[in-house]
């Protein structure tokens, strides 16, 4: 899992506490179109990217470059169907298995893996289908049993949606059982920020 990254992030948070919080410019809200239900994910201090992600980027530099293009996807029923299909197919295709302690390896397109491997595989698949990379963000959180966990956030015109290997449902970011920790920057996937919950 991602235990070490959360300890490192906590350390960096203390060091970076003088940075002023700002708002991420992506809306967050319900996955279905409900008027006036949109909120914004607030990001706080910059923090270190997870070490496993940095190692992944060293080997897969094309997956970690800043990209041009839309930072959100226009919500539609067709887009939701595609998201549900991809989420379901990859959740079924990868056998969940945790990395050994001290060996937090992030990989895409694997037959066995943990949460980060699901996230990277979903991200690559969506990009291959034409979804803009700048609208797809990896986020780190805690599950209710305090396990470090990674999910894919898809920024849409109707809010930030969560693709999670623990469920085939796609939920708004603010309607999950997760305790949010950090998310990739929309400007550069190598830059990460804490998630400010106010």
Automatic annotation (TrEMBL):
Pfam family, any one: Peptidase_C93
InterPro entries to which the protein is assigned, alphabetical: Transglutaminase-like_Cys_pept
Keywords (A to Z) from UniProt: Signal
Top-level taxon: Bacteria
Signal peptide: 1-24
Cited PANTHER family: BLR5470 PROTEIN (PTHR39327:SF1), PTHR39327
Protein name (record): Putative transglutaminase-like cysteine proteinase
